[in-house]
Amino acid sequence: MKYELDGKPLEILHIKCHRNGICGAPFHAVRFSWDGKYFLASVFETEEHVAVMEIKNSESCWRGDNFEPILRQAIKAHDDAWLKELRQKNPVRAVSK
């Protein structure tokens, strides 16, 4: 799936879900490129909880709300594809009594 922000292509490079331990809030880590730069985002389940940093310049933080709709859309597509693949590999079987 292709994404675009402010007329510039945004490419999702990698998405990984993290449990964040037994008491932390789970989140998705998303690596992506946009406007010639590479970014890492932490996208938490709660809306408006998104942190975006430029990878080469860790002091350069970006507004997560600008990227949030695209990142959540990419995460949903990623998770849906992962679940579909998992179900194909391990189909649920009906249990007879």
Walk across the major sheet and give the strand order. 1-2-3-4-5-6
Return residue spans where pLDDT drops below 50 for at least 5 consecutive residues: none
- Silhouette: globular
Please count the helical segments: 1
Average pLDDT taken over every residue? 90
CA-based gyration radius? 16 Å
Largest sheet: 6 strands, antiparallel
Key attributes of the depicted protein:
alpha+beta, 6-stranded antiparallel β-sheet, 6 strands, 27% helix
Plain-language structure description:
The model has no long low-confidence stretch (mean pLDDT 90). It is globular and about 50 Å long. Strands 1-2-3-4-5-6 form a 6-stranded antiparallel β-sheet, covered by helices on one side. The protein has one helix at 64-89; strands spanning 3-5, 8-18, 27-34, 37-44, 50-54, 61-62. The chain has 97 residues and is α+β, with helices and mostly antiparallel strands. The chain contains 1 helix and 6 strands, in the order ββββββα.
SSE blueprint and pairings:
Elements: E1 3-5, E2 8-18, E3 27-34, E4 37-44, E5 50-54, E6 61-62, H1 64-89
Question: Could you provide a short overview of the structure?
Answer:
The protein has 97 residues and is of the alpha+beta class.
